[in-house]
Amino acid sequence: MSNKSLPAAPGGRPRASAKTFIAPAVFDRWDPGIQAASNDDADRTITIMDVIGYDWWTGEGVTAKRVSAALRHMGAGPVTVVINSPGGDVFEGFAIYNLLRDHQGEVTVKVIGLAASSASIIAMAGDTIQIARAGFFMVHNCWTIAIGNRHELRGLADDMEPIDAAIADIYVAQTGIDLKDIEKQMDSETWINGSAAVEQGYADELLSADQTTKSDAKASVSAVRRIEASLRATGMPRSEAQRLISDFKSSLSDSAGGGARDATERGLRDAAALSTTAALAASLTNILPTR
């Protein structure tokens, strides 16, 4: 996964007799005809082109069970997730997010149309998140239809509050946007197009067909994520992979130094730092899997 610490999504459901649903207005902007082009890596691609969770209208939908089976079949290694979905069941979205987040290998998410509601949560699990220039994220608070007496409905509102907090936490971890600003976006049901998604941090880059140039900073972040994903694919725990990369980056910074050098103590420190960098580089080379 990425070099940032991503929160785990919660499990469980509200106590009242309610289920999370897609807001009707979302269907007006979702074009199910947008499909992924075929490619040579189709056997390592998961397509999410339907509602999230079991759709009792059609008997279809993308479930955590299906995604889990696909990941088990693929095994460790890179996975591409292609998304064009209006969202759906938030708890299925949380489960799929957690499955992808814990996958041993680099996860590349490509939003080719719409990643709305719980589909946008799933997208946040990517090591690299790409979006079409004409693609969209939609973020909002959990939406539901409920029945019950006034006490049950008041209780349901209280139960939904921590669900919204968990969603916001995931967005904050990806974007770095202040929590209050994320909450305002969710309160307003915000639609974010491709370029804005990259600017705000919901995505790392546009799809290759829509890219112009990538800054050195974004290229560096992408490289770090790929290294971490490769380390985790060997079975290394996330915390250990992040620590190793952090140590490696620190040693690079230390060896670069700053200002004029003398030939005594500082020179010896620089030499030691360079030796440490070389050792860490060798370690990475030895444990990274070959293609």
Your description of this structure?
The protein has two domains: about 20-210, 2-enoyl-CoA Hydratase, Chain A, domain 1; about 215-285. It is built from ten helices and nine strands. The protein has helices spanning about 25, 65-75, 90-100, 120-125, 150-175, 180-185, 195-200, 215-235, 240-255, 265-285; strands at about 20, 45-50, 80-85, 105-115, 130, 135-140, 145, 190-195, 205. The strands form two sheets. Strands 2, 3, 4, 5, 6, 8 and 9 form a seven-stranded mixed beta sheet that branches. α2 links the parallel β2 and β3. α2 (about 65-75) runs parallel beside α3 and α9 packs antiparallel against α10 (about 265-285). The radius of gyration is 21 Å and the shape is globular. The two termini are about 20 Å apart. The model is unreliable at about 1-5, about 15-20 and about 260-265 (pLDDT under 50).
